[in-house]
Amino acid sequence: METIHTISGMKQVSREARAKGRVVGLIPTMGALHEGHFSLVREAQRRCSPVVVSIFVNPAQFGPSEDFQKYPRSLESDRAALEALGVDYLFAPAPEEMYPAGFCTSVVVEGLSDRLEGRSRQGHFRGVATVVAKLFEMVGPSFAYFGRKDAQQARIIRQMTRDLDIETQIVTCPIVRESDGLALSSRNLYLAGDDRRAATALYRSLESLERQVAAGESDVARLLAAARGVLSAEPRVKIDYAEIVDADTLEPVMSLRGSCLVLLAATVGSTRLIDNALVEQEGDSFRATV
Ligand code: PAF
User: Fold this and answer.
1) Is 61 in the pocket of ligand 1 (CB under 6 A)?
2) 37 part of the active site
3) Are 119 and 230 in contact (CB under 8 A)?
4) What's the predicted TM-score (pTM) here?
5) pLDDT tens for residues 6-29?
6) N or C: which end of the chain has fewer CB within 10 A?
7) Domain count of the chain?
8) Is residue 166 part of a domain?
């Protein structure tokens, strides 16, 4: 595996690969890699060669009171893990490369970015869309891989590629969970002791919703009341939002229809976590995937 630190180096490698007719795959990450990221790598390796993993802790997507400074950074162990997986290139640009002095352009996906995570984390998706657009320009991937845990992010990036005629196909992969259901996230490293135990409440709440959907419940108010009940029963958990939205528009729905997302955000101790379930219509009934 080759590690590339410069944008010019990355562009050259991907230009040469594309000239040879190769299919470039990109997994954009902020490092502190875990099995969720590795599942994206394995999915990319099924149809892309070379596979590029980028690691860049993007300051533009953190608010002033958020965890940019303490966000886990583990470049050496990340590099070793990617090498062992057979990744072709690790792209790890420096902040000065990504945002040189005088940088003043950003990408805003209107509407979709203002709701849910965007309402709680002002400017977050502007930072995400901007850096992902830049990474797409640098790497020129045919396919880019994102986890469904960040469902709103994946939807926004898909919209961005459509609106900006970016020829990268967005692939969204399933959520990977710990054995007790906690969705894998680099921020889980912040959780210890009682917080770690309490953090499973998000999964438990989605799991109970999954059971109710399987039993035929489709009334959103009732489903959400039950999901919130599971979260509220855990004193260390403070709900930010629990919503059921149309998977395409991200607008709230009154009753299940088509494809919906159940989106949860909560703070456990001082750690903010998100999780979700996808609910899809199958004939006359619905099936939730947690
Ligand atoms: O999901 C993430 O890790 C980040 O938001 C991303 C897509 C790498 C952009 O910085």
Assistant:
1) yes
2) yes
3) no
4) 0.98
5) 999 999 999 999 999 999 999 999
6) N
7) 2
8) yes
